[in-house]
Structures are given as structure tokens and as C-alpha cells.
Design brief:
The chain has about 220 residues and is an alpha/beta fold. The chain has one domain: Collagenase (Catalytic Domain) (3-Layer(aba) Sandwich). Helix 1 packs across helix 3. Bound molecules: zinc ion.
Length: about 220
């Protein structure tokens, strides 16, 4: 399988456990999974409860699938967290299509300055379903959720890989576990102030900002 990767500053020591059942493909074995601090980072991309996203020219060809993925999350979360904007400066998240990502990555989410970079060499080969799955996965990081395919516990890691968005299961079906985890990580992570966010966004020396400004 092709790895997804996030690019986070991870410095979390929050804890708190919420029990819930994972919907299992196995008809008889519904497991109870606890949410742990290993599942979230320290911040999310929301501002006033929303994440305004902007689609750069080089990602316009994926626009329909981007909007689809955003709508799926909004429905799953029960509120319109993701909203489209045509203003780059008004956005907290920019989608860009690039061939500069390492070849093993279909997409990356950079939370500091709010960029989701989609690897065009994979995206252009993927069918609609897989493109949507990649985008849904990367959007999961904007809520502060980590990659569950890296989860420390090997048994759970195996379950997550098969059954969850953040485990990289290539599904476009946001299950109850995925939605509850996203809501939980939103509650466990913080929003950036406009000052903090613009500090990152305006730093054109950062890798993803160079990408956005056509310097890479
Ligand atoms: Zn990921």
C-alpha cells in the first residue's frame, strides 16, 4: 500500500480516554477501542469552528473530489466545519497538486501553515474513489488526528489499517469510529490564533509555502 504521511510538530502529553465500539467487518466481534493521546497531535486547523479551504490552480482538476470529501466530513461531523473560499488570504487550508512529494506519498497534510499537497503522479492514476479516499484521509489530519497506521499497539494498528480512514483503508465511507475520533481530536487539540497562523503562512521559506508560491 502507499503510505500517507503527516508533517506535524508532535508535542502532546494530553490524556483522556473515551471508550467506543469499532464497527467490525467480523459480524460477531465488535471490539471496544479506547481513544488515546497517541491518536492526536497538539493543534487543529479550525478558526472560529471552521476551516476555510482554498483550491490552488494546480489542484483545480480535483475540485469535485475535494468538495465531495469536505462534504462527507461535514455530514459525518454534523456541522459545516469545512467551507470553501475563493480567497487565499481568507483560507486556513490550501490544496495544491504537486510532483514534489516523495514518490511513496499520495498526499501530505501540513498543519502549521495549512497545506494539503496531493501527489499528482498518484492522483492522476487513481480513480475517483481512490482520489476521494486520499483527500478524506488528509482532511482528517486538519482536525488534529494522527495516522493510525503508525499506532504503537500492533494488534490495534492492524485493525485500524483495515477499518479506519486514518489507518489508510482507502475508504470514502466515514464510519462512526472515524467521525467520533475526529470530533474527539478536535476537542483535544487547539486552534491557532490569527497571529500564530499567519506567522507560518507568511513564512515563504517553509517548504510548503515555497510549493504554494511556485518556488518548488
Ligand atoms: Zn496521514
Amino acid at each position: 500500500m502507499f503510505s500517507f504521511k503527516h508533517f506535524f510538530v508532535v508535542m502532546v502529553a494530553l490524556f483522556g480516554f473515551v471508550g467506543l465500539a469499532v464497527q467490525s467487518d467480523d459480524v460477531s466481534a465488535a471490539q471496544t477501542i479506547k481513544f488515546t493521546s497517541e491518536m492526536h497531535t497538539n493543534k487543529n486547523l479550525t478558526y472560529n469552528g471552521t476551516i476555510k479551504y482554498y483550491v490552488k490552480g494546480d489542484a483545480k482538476k480535483y475540485q469535485a473530489n475535494l468538495d465531495y470529501a469536505a462534504n462527507r466530513w461535514n455530514k459525518a461531523l454534523g456541522q459545516k466545519v469545512l467551507r470553501k473560499t475563493t480567497s487565499l488570504t481568507d483560507s486556513r487550508l490550501v490544496f495544491t497538486g504537486t510532483n514534489k512529494l516523495a514518490s511513496g506519498y499520495a498526499g501530505m497534510a501540513e498543519i502549521n501553515s495549512g497545506v494539503i499537497a496531493l501527489n499528482t503522479s498518484w492522483m492522476n492514476r487513481y480513480n475517483k474513489q481512490k482520489q476521494r479516499a486520499v483527500i478524506i484521509h488528509e482532511l482528517g489530519h486538519t482536525f488534529g488526528t494522527k495516522d493510525l497506521y503508525n499506532y504503537p499497539d500492533a494488534t490495534l494498528r492492524g485493525v485500524f489499517k483495515k477499518q479506519t480512514i486514518m489507518g489508510g483503508n482507502y475508504s470514502t465511507n466515514i464510519r462512526s469510529f472515524d467521525a467520533k475520533l475526529a470530533k474527539w481530536t478536535l476537542s483535544k487539540t487547539r486552534s491557532m490564533s490569527p497571529t500564530e497562523f499567519s506567522h507560518y503562512r507568511s513564512n515563504k521559506g517553509l517548504y510548503y509555502q515555497q510549493m504554494l508560491h511556485g518556488q518548488l
